[in-house]
C-alpha cells in the first residue's frame, strides 16, 4: 500500500499538539502563582488562567489527532498494513482527510480515537468513558455523529471527483474506524460500516471488496489523484 501524505500539515499540527499544551500549563501555573503572590492582580491572573485553559484545549485537540499515540494518520496506517500495492492511502490531500484508493474506487475513513463504551442505537450515539469530562477538558474530541460526518466527507469527495472527472462515475463510500484498543463498540443498524482497528482489513478483502473499475477508468482516477 502506497502512503501519500501532506507532511507539512502533519508536522505543523503535531508541533502544536506537543508544545501548545505545555504553554497552557505554564500559563495556568502563572495564574496560580499570581493568585498567591499578588492576590490584588486579579485581571492578570484571570487573563493567565483563561489563556492557559484555551491553549490546553486547543493543544489537546491537535495532540489527540496528530501527535498522541492514537494519531489518526498513524493508527489508520497500522490498521490497513498489509494491503497490496494496488491500494493507495491519501491523507490530508483531498477534501476528505483519509481516503483509500483501490481497484474498485475510493473509501473515505472517519477515524475515531475514543476509548470506553461507544454505542449506536435508534439513530443515536452514546459514549461512556472514565474521566470523560476531564479528557474532553484536555481537548479530547467528542464522538459526535460519525455517520453524519462520514456522509458529509463522502459528498465532499464526490463533488470534487465530479469536477475533476465529469464524464466518469467513481464509487465512493465511507467507513468509520475506531482505533483505540480499549474501545467497546456496540452498533445496531448503523448505516455506515464500522469497525475496530485491524478488523476493517478483512472486510476490505472480503464482504467490502469493490468490483474493479475498468482499467481506463482507474487510470484516469489515478491521474486525477496524482498517483501517476
Structure, described:
The protein is α/β, with parallel strands linked by helices and 228 residues long. The protein has 2 domains: 2-67; 72-224, no CATH class. It has 7 helices and 9 strands. The strands form 2 sheets. The protein has a 6-stranded mixed β-sheet. Strands 6-5-8 form a 3-stranded mixed β-sheet, with no helix packed on it.
Distance between the termini: 15 Å
Globular, elongated, flat, extended or rod-shaped: what is the shape?
A: elongated
Number of helices: 7
Average of per-residue pLDDT values: 88
Q: Which runs of at least 5 residues are low in confidence (pLDDT < 50)?
A: none
Strand content: 15-25%
**Count of the domains:** 2
- Describe the main β-sheet briefly: 6 strands, mixed
Helix and strand pattern = EHHHEEEEEHHEEEHH
Short key terms for the protein model shown above:
9 strands, three-stranded mixed beta sheet
Note the topology.
Layout: E1 2-5, H1 7-37, H2 42-67, H3 72-80, E2 88-91, E3 98-102, E4 105-112, E5 116-121, E6 124-128, H4 132-137, H5 146-164, E7 172-178, E8 183-187, E9 194-196, H6 199-205, H7 215-224
Parallel strand pairs: 1-2, 4-7, 5-8, 7-9
Antiparallel strand pairs: 2-3, 3-4, 5-6
Helix pairs in contact: 1-2
Short note summarizing the structure:
The protein is an alpha/beta fold. The protein contains seven helices and nine strands.
